[in-house]
Request: fold
Amino acid sequence: MNILFLTPYITDFTAYDLWVRPLGLMQLAAWVKSRTDCDVYWLNPLDRYAGPAGREATGDGRGHFHRVVIHKPECFRSIPRNYARYGWPLETFNSRLAALPRIDLICMTTLMTYWVEGARFTLDLVRSCFPQATTVVGGILPTLMPIESRREIRADHHVSGRGEACLLKLIEQGGGHVRPPSQALPADPGEFLSTADPAYPLLTSRGCPMHCSYCASRLLNPDFSERAVADVIDEVRFASRSRQHFVFFDDALLIHKEYRFLPLARLAAELGLKLHTPNGLHVREIDRVTAVALKAAGTQTLRLSLETTAGDIGTRGSSKVDAAAMRNAVEALFSAGFSPADLETYVLWGLPGQSIASVHATLDFVETLGIIPRLADYSPVPGTADFMRLQKTGRLKRPGNPLQTNKLYHLFRTCAYSALEMEAVRNRCREIAASVRQD
Reply:
């Protein structure tokens, strides 16, 4: 039985490869390979290192996707931005598709609800090549918007949450052999990364114990669970034979840091690795010991989760950060040897009820800290308290439209900010960042 694991193209106004690695799909493909006798195939048009030769095959793993401007969906007509498809040129994708043997089962993930156009486009291309194959769609879209997923994407099965049980059933129905757990072979998600890719995605926990009103972490992973640190250490030691950059995908990396992150930091220092934390760290967890460990571990991308200093907004979240905690964390990181230009913090804007004045107040605070602000555009995440609040007020439709969860759709169509106000905020962020880097 031949199974294809598929990552779809991105369709959006902007997209950048900030370590976009489909880790969940990689783990699932490795698990199927270890537990069954199926032949597993892999197709990921977002993998810049497996695309056209010479496409940024060095560095730390970040870079620009190949981009083609495409027709803008009707609901985006008034947004003054180009809409594009991001990923390999179509001739590259089609040639890789043509080189595959007959495929019996297609398993496609989805990465964002509002990238639905890219998911539909990709699956239609593959279905036209293998019309007899059974198709399964999983990931973010069917988990957060199951009705809309079935409406928007033609597939035989739409899987919410984890997909192992569904795949095993389909494999057995298709005549594949499933090994009992005791006979499972070693599973290596890293084998689905291109050998030229310098970055290794790492997950030490699933979910988050916080209850932020705008975040879907608890919807995607209802229970916060942590991997045994010994298993993570073994994975890092094995992956470090071929890669130096490790990117943490955790939502709550520093929770219980004494027995999870700090042992990994010591290992990273021992092996001379370079660490990246693009998801943002909980600043309440950064004390002097943690700051020293982050520095010694070779942390190169260190992003903090400030998000907003507005009290009326913060009370709807988890109170995971306040001004004092942020100052203490930044001071600890400076004492550990990080420079101002090393530190970036997310500033979340566009939240329901968040005024433009409160955004500037947050930027005022970041400027006093002397670090770099990085705007995080709020996008309404289905199932969250904020999303339901927007539906209740009529600013988002019922039933949902995945495209209307796009961050720029929200900023331009449902948010109260004017175009001039938005441009002023973006310019101010750039000015603060430039000033920090020059000092």
